[in-house]
Amino acid sequence: MTGFDTRAIHAGQDPDPATGAVIPPLHLTTTYKQDGVGGLRGGYEYSRSGNPTRDTLQTALASLEQGTRAMTFASGLAAEDVLLRTVCRPGDRIVLGGDAYGGTYRLISKVQEPWGVGHLPVDLNDLDAVREAVAPETTRVLWCETPSNPLLNVSDIAVLAEIAHAAGTLLVVDNTFASPYLQQPLTLGADVVVHSTTKYLGGHSDVVGGALVVADAELGERLAYLQNAAGAVNGPFDAWLLLRSLKTLGVRMDRHSANAGRIAEWLLEHPAVGDVLYPGLPQHRNHEIAAKQMSGFGGMVSFRLRAGEEAALRVCERAQLFTLAESLGGVESLIEHPHRMTHASAAGSPLEVPADLVRLSVGIEDVDDLLADLDQALG
Ligand SMILES: *Cc1c(COP(=O)(O)O)cnc(C)c1O
């Protein structure tokens, strides 16, 4: 197999056979001419069921995650919805990390629950608790997000895969924060990889999307069935933008990781800052696991303000080069207050996040400019 960056640029992306165009064409079409009834060219009949631009993206993503099949969707949550409805039935149960993305928790606790699918949050670092939680036969899914949002906890994917498989449960890994450049969960035993491609895979804050990637062909077939039957596919232009983004994923992630590492170290020294949460710091509680399963530590850094919530809000409002906004993973740096913004839907739940926490999505600007902005924002 060729290297990651080579696959990001070339997998599924041969020059167009009709014209030699180096970049795969953008197929903005809903339907396809048939050569006689049922005479499909390349299997294409209707763009919800299949579109060449989306297929190219799916081929490239499957290759980057070292899976056999990828399916892309209109958003990360649309991908998660198809996954959960494919594998869970009434009476089943989902065990999920206690700090999963707020939208994932909402989908599971508010949308799945009324259809009879239960859930149980656990601390994924407490392996005995995980073993106990997945033991009942009704546990269909063990859901792990690593690194997690916004607390940057890291879980041992290989160990969780063993625990899940011993109980006959699927291990799902939300790989949004790491991207396949830094971590490939299927190679560590995960059954399904989930992405919000809105984040690092898109990388330019201009396209919302999601993906599922699997190793098992039969599971891939079932997921692809609901992708078409429920229909929350991404459009061809969104797929084309993502293909453009994938080509630079490796160089972007290297710079995100380098900038975030510098910023995390700088924050450690700042008197107004309490805990700094970044898996690349040797003092991070899961640093060893991160170093074992990731090839870099990514661009997300969270930190707590010693003076509490008001101080955290003030930093978010004073920052200038860091834009105050939700989302993450773009080339530009963002700052936010998870308790009131991205994770507001987790308020009062076991997944509530501390109010003195600030989350940074560190972009690829010059790191000295980013440090100067944080310096003035922290006052
Ligand atoms: C954003 C995000 C999602 C949801 O994806 P959307 O594209 O917003 O639907 C899921 N998981 C993580 C870790 C995320 O950051």
TrEMBL record:
PROSITE patterns: CYS_MET_METAB_PP. GO terms for molecular function: cystathionine gamma-lyase activity; cystathionine gamma-synthase activity; pyridoxal phosphate binding. The keyword Lyase applies. Keywords: Lyase, Pyridoxal phosphate. GO terms for biological process: cysteine biosynthetic process via cystathionine; transsulfuration. GO terms for cellular component: cytoplasm. Transmembrane segments: none annotated. Residues 1-21 are annotated as: Disordered. It holds the Pfam family Cys_Met_Meta_PP. Its cofactor is pyridoxal 5'-phosphate. Its EC number is 2.5.1.48. CDD domains: CGS_like. The modification N6-(pyridoxal phosphate)lysine is found at residue 199. Belongs to the trans-sulfuration enzymes family. PANTHER family: CYSTATHIONINE GAMMA-LYASE, TRANS-SULFURATION ENZYME FAMILY MEMBER. This is Cystathionine gamma-synthase.
